[in-house]
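#lab-general

N.A. 3:47 PM
ok so I finally got the sequence cleaned up, no stray characters, all 295 residues accounted for. can someone with queue access submit it? mine expired

B.Y. 3:52 PM
send it over

N.A. 3:53 PM
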Amino acid sequence: MGKLDKEKFSLQHHDVDLFHRSEWDGQGVTSTWYVVYRVCVALFMVTGVVCHFVSTLETQGMKWFIYMTNQGISFLTIHYIIYAGIVLGKKFSSGPTPLGSLPFLYKFSWGMQTCFTTVALWITLIYWTALHPYVVEFNIMKGTWMKMLNVFLHGVNTISCVVDMMITARPVRIHHFYFPCLFGIWFTLFSVIYWAAGGLGMCMPRCLNLRLDSTMSQVDPSCPINCDKYIYPILDWEDHPGMAAGIVIGGCVLMPVLQSAWWGVVWLRQTCKGSRKEEFYKVDEVQKELHDSML
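B.Y. 4:20 PM
back already:
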């Protein structure tokens, strides 16, 4: 059996150059087109997030921050901003590329990317398979603009990650699956505490006790305002704690699979470019020796 490489779980890599250039640029080259791309992606994501926040102020207000979707895309956007800053800094700096250990900002950026690209994929899958029917049933998304923003939150988030994985030169390690798991644990604890403290989810007109022969819609505007006791129906800790716990456990089990999907995208990218090299995923032996000597 192969020896478990503990270093693959770390945010260490021997080739710093991969973290501020495109796969499609030459080695050591941070091209102008790549700088423009990174800045445009960051601005696009910031614009989308701000538009959604402003458009839901009247209906959600500060509750906007309680949803995993909104937290996830906010952190994904922060990642894009930091990444753009790194590439801009490299493009306009006169110093050489640092050798050896990744700088702290590079490690932080790589960790953010690893975590929130996988979280984005999880959000997309869960929304369109489990939550979208609920949104349709209660007619939560009204108007073309809100439907477009909904697609941005639950579709464009992952599409942007796929496109980015095909352009960036950064590697992906399946061993980093624990980063999105940590975010999942954070949101689980947050949702439990929020529920236990009496926090409410979405509030809207709903007639919950209609007669079976009633022709009135359950979401008729004349219905009284009712608020959910949960953030998401699949995380209903009061009435369906078993289902909620199952979703959390299932998510943790699925994270290595989702992380493997991103590894596959990078494999495809490198295969298309002809740069598929196993050493991209190895930690430099010299760095290992230096690390061991410091222990």
